[in-house]
């Protein structure tokens, strides 16, 4: 009898342990809620760095010095209206690095290693529209995403834990991602990676399926955001109006 009671007690304890260990996990956040948090948080950022890479089919950038194939851009942004960037393009069949400085509508540009020129390089480009305006920039682009789904969790190359969202969008409505520096067209598929802790967007990958051919893959844009509210290394042209 004592043995039976001992066995019964052990069974009860095992059932209690099993019940505790199988407690339901915290449900994952809603995809739309994550995207909204990431949008709200990045709009509060004062400075950031970003890298834009283009792979697949060429994208031709129309500038005041001619048509250039966009390859890569590294940029720094300081709220509310300043951006400095280095863009690697192919101009006249040759690889060229162009430096750009913009403060509001005032633009300066130069070929790497040459003198600055105070003239419009990218018609219509204004860095103020990236983060500070409700109906433009990143807020407008993120608001245009459709079919937003939480695909899961992942680890970024730097080790950061991130939520992975997938979405679709009309290219014209998400060109605000790059302040119309690049004008995206056609239907697109999008992957969004959001930092689990900070709830800030870390990376976006935008694919334009309609640009693919039998020999070249679709134009694919990879945008990485980092160094949020970090120190900037903006070096305005000597005669610009920037502080």
Task: Kindly describe this structure.
The protein has 243 residues and is of the alpha+beta class. Helices cover 18% and strands 40% of the residues. It has a single domain, classed as outer membrane lipoprotein receptor (LolB), chain A. It has helices spanning 2-21, 31-42, 137-143, 171-174, and strands spanning 47-55, 60-63, 66-78, 82-91, 94-103, 106-111, 146-155, 161-170, 187-195, 201-208, 219-226. Strands 1, 2, 3, 4, 5, 6, 7, 8, 9, 10 and 11 form an eleven-stranded antiparallel sheet that branches. α2 (31-42) runs antiparallel to α3 (137-143). The chain is globular, with a radius of gyration of 24 Å. The mean pLDDT is 86.
List its salient traits:
243 residues; 11-stranded antiparallel sheet; outer membrane lipoprotein receptor (LolB), chain A; 11 strands; alpha+beta
Shape: globular
Total count of helical runs of at least 4 residues: 4
Q: Tell how many strands the DSSP assignment holds.
A: 11
Structural class: alpha+beta
Short description:
By secondary structure, this protein is an alpha+beta fold. It has helices at 2-21, 31-42, 137-143, 171-174; strands at residues 47-55, 60-63, 66-78, 82-91, 94-103, 106-111, 146-155, 161-170, 187-195, 201-208, 219-226. It has a single domain, classed as Clam (outer membrane lipoprotein receptor (LolB), chain A).
């Amino acid at each position: 009898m004592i043995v039976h009671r001992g066995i019964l007690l052990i069974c009860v304890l095992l059932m209690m342990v099993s019940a505790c260990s199988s407690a339901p996990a915290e449900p994952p956040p809603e995809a739309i809620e994550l995207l909204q948090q990431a949008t709200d948080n990045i709009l509060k950022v004062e400075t950031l760095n970003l890298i834009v890479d283009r792979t697949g089919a060429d994208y031709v950038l129309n500038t005041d010095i001619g048509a250039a194939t966009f390859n890569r851009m590294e940029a720094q942004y300081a709220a509310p209206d300043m951006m400095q960037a280095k863009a690697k393009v192919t101009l006249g069949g040759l690889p060229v690095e162009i430096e750009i400085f913009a403060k509001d509508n005032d633009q300066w540009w130069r070929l790497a290693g040459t003198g600055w020129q105070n003239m419009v390089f990218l018609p219509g480009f204004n860095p103020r529209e990236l983060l500070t305006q409700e109906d433009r920039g990143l807020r407008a682009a993120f608001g245009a995403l459709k079919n937003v789904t939480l695909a899961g969790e992942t680890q970024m190359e730097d080790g950061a834990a991130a939520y992975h969202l997938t979405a679709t969008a009309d290219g014209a409505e998400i060109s605000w991602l790059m302040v119309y520096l690049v004008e995206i067209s056609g239907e697109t598929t999008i992957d969004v990676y959001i930092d689990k802790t900070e709830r800030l967007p870390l990376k976006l990958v935008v694919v334009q399926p309609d640009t693919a051919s039998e020999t070249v893959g679709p134009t694919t844009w990879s945008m990485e955001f980092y160094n949020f509210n970090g120190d900037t290394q903006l070096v305005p042209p000597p005669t610009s109006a920037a502080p």
